[in-house]
Amino acid sequence: MKRFVILIVLLLGAPVALALDSRTNIDKAIDLIEVGGHSLARSYLAPALIDPRLSSGERSRAYYLRGYSFGAQDLLVSARKDFYRSLEFNPDNPAVLFALGRLHYFGNGTEVDHALGVSLFEQAIEHGHKQAKFQLAYAYLKGEGVEQDVPRARELLLENANEGDPASMMQLAMSYRAPGAAYAQPELAREWYEKAIAAGEPKAYLSLGYMHGNGELGEPDLQRGVANYQLAADAGVAPAFLSLGHAYLNGIGVGQDYGLAQAWYEKAAFAGVAGGYLGLGHIFQAGLGVESDLEQALRWYQEGAERGDLNAQLRSTYLLLNEGSPEARVSAIEWLKKAVAQSSAEAYNAYAWLLATSKWDDLRNGTLAVSHAKQALAQNTNPAYMDTLAAAYAENGQFTEAVAMQMEALQLVAEQDLALRTELETHLIRYERSEPWRE
Question: Would you say residue 376 lies in a domain?
Answer without folding.
Answer: yes
